[in-house]
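JOB MANIFEST
job_type = single_chain_structure
chain_count = 1
residues = 259
[input]
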Amino acid sequence: MKNKILKFMLTCIAAISFQTCVNAGELKVYAIKYGISQFPEKFIFLNSKSNKTKNFSWMFYYIEFKDRKILIDTGFNNQKFIKMFSVKNFIDPVKILKDNNITPESITDIIITHAHFDHIENIHRFPNARIIISLEEYNSLFNSRGNLDIKKKLSDKSQLIIFEDNYTLYDFFFIKKIGGHTKGSSVIFFDYNSKRFCLTGDEIYSLGNLTQNIGNGTVVDSAKNLNFINNLKNSGDIPLIFHDDKYYDMPKNFIQIIP
């Protein structure tokens, strides 16, 4: 019990103290929206019996931090999944980046929140990027079938950082494994302009998960997911969601979040 309490306290201290100062212009955050669809509410909200669907955006995030160019997940470009999930207005995520003068070769780091196809499938298209991923998510990926391009990219240990519980990148981004949506599912915290932000991965599908205090309907561990949601709601941190329906009708694909 004492060890568990100590571990929890150290994690909390790390989460509070990891930040470094950021000057104006040193941090830029954009949402990359590459498609939209409808998604069943029963998969969005825990224990939902609804037959309705909700607006669903397909997104990941691009961050410029000082001289680094960082992706939080990568999106996908696979006609099978586009058809399976009835994704409309699909644009290849790499094309969106290129259209905004961001080449695949210029990406320095990719933080993977979890290994579902829409978060990791494009990873091999960024040849110079270092990959940061939790140990459990890394192991689950290599224990699954297929994904040869992804596995090849993750086999280069010189471009790979694997962490167990948490990892701090550039003394600014605090990456924490939650393990609710998938076994190794992670989120990322950072501070900006006296506010704390959280890139939620798929621990949250909709802002309604947070405002209504309802767990994600697609999880491997509902207790861990609900604990994260409760903590996030009580913290007042600003969530950056990867399927946020508030961007559903927005015509832009490269959406400025910060500054």
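[summary]
Residues 2-17 form the longest helix (16 residues).
The longest strand covers residues 27-40.
exit_status = 0
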